[in-house]
Automatic annotation (TrEMBL):
It comes from the Bacteria. This is Uncharacterized protein.
Length: 183
């Protein structure tokens, strides 16, 4: 007895398809041929299994710090932004939130610090403590001008600006010399 893997339209049975409203319809193969171009596009899902990643990290690999940095420049923080920071701190207690404040004066910095401490500490501290047993150590408010990272960055930016201005100044001087050359 010879086996074949050929299937005919009759072996498949009557086609079934969803209409535009998502209701399932059925009919003959001829019915299906008439409406098949009006049907929604078919979607195929394919699951791909990737090979495992080595559990041994490269020697030079370091952990990414679990920190969220905010930078605030100016006056006191508006209520809607304060609510957003509060919500983010509440939703991510496993991360340390560091708020870098570039205030116009030390008085404004103190006011922003008071504003953040009052809002975040009172609203979130009890939730975090009761939910997760965390201490309120995941928030830090820093003066941007006393922050070591910013001081290094500021120095690098100043050096870069000085180099750019020096190059521009040199080009201007060269152009002026070209214009003032006399025979």
């Amino acid at each position: 007895m010879k086996e074949t893997s050929v299937t005919s339209k009759k072996q498949l049975g009557d086609p079934i398809w969803p209409d535009q409203l998502g209701q399932w319809k059925f009919g003959s193969y001829a019915d299906f041929q008439q409406i098949k171009n009006q049907l929604p596009i078919a979607i195929n899902h394919e699951i791909i299994t990737l090979g495992s990643i080595s559990s041994v990290p490269p020697a030079q690999a370091t952990l990414i710090p679990q920190q969220i940095h905010y930078i605030w420049v100016g006056e006191v923080i508006p209520k809607n932004l304060l609510e957003n920071i509060t919500k983010n701190v509440e939703n991510s207690p496993q991360y340390k939130s560091i708020i870098h404040v570039d205030a116009d004066s030390s008085t404004i910095f103190k006011e922003i610090k008071r504003q953040l401490n009052n809002k975040i500490t009172t609203k979130i501290f009890e939730k975090i403590k009761s939910k997760l047993g965390y201490k309120m150590s995941n928030i830090e408010i820093r003066d941007l001008h006393e922050d070591n990272f910013f001081l290094i960055l500021e120095t690098q930016i100043q050096e870069k600006c000085i180099n750019i201005f020096a190059q521009v100044s040199e080009k201007i001087t060269q152009q002026q010399q070209m214009y003032y050359v006399t025979p």
